[in-house]
UniProtKB/TrEMBL annotation:
The keyword Hydrolase applies. GO terms for biological process: lipid biosynthetic process. Keywords: Hydrolase. Belongs to the thioesterase family. Pfam families: Thioesterase. One of its GO terms (molecular function) is hydrolase activity. Residues 4-225 form the Thioesterase TesA-like domain. InterPro entries: AB_hydrolase_fold, TEII, TesA-like, Thioesterase. This is Thioesterase II family protein.
Amino acid sequence: MNLYCIPYAGCSARVYDAWRQYLPDGVTLVPLELPGRGSRCVDEPVDELAPLLADLRRQVDPDTPYVLFGHSYGALIAFELAKRLRADGAPEPVALLVSASRAPRLLGADADTHLLTDAELTARLAALGGTPAELLENEELMEIYLPVIRADYRILGEYGTGTPGTVGCPVVALHGSADEEADRAAAEVWAEYTEGPFRTAEIQGDHFFLHSAERELVAAVAAVCTKGETR
């Protein structure tokens, strides 16, 4: 079973590296690195959905059983990737796990974020949390980082707010117990976007429980991969 993981906005797929020590035998972690960060830092960031999906599609082997996982912005991209695979006639994932993410029709609050000045965008990132202070305070690093996060926010900003179709696979929507951005009510709306089984699961923590409750999250993900816990 391959577990493909997509990071949140501005983040490298290296955020998932520690998962390997917690995942059971038979589950292979495959972090999907987006252009412009991590091992692909020399690549230009992609700020349009279609070419980003084409890039990710080339990294996925749908002929081997697989699960798709994405956190926050990464959840939306994972959903769109699942749709792309379905449209291609490829085998769908065993499950799609959307973590700390509002469903597509609830988006809209970030529509203009990519248009902010560098100073405004930096201030917004500081207010949201999740970005290390040492990065925000380092002008040289921010010159590299801002184009990456801006590209992600442009994709979010230009993403349609209407119902953009469905997937046929099971969907599990994970939400943080103290997440004010994507709470349980927001997670439950994801039920509208699958023709298969759906359930929610609560993880202790705020929007970035990916970091604060890593082992709890990985255990929930592993249960889906190994036991098919999608109901």
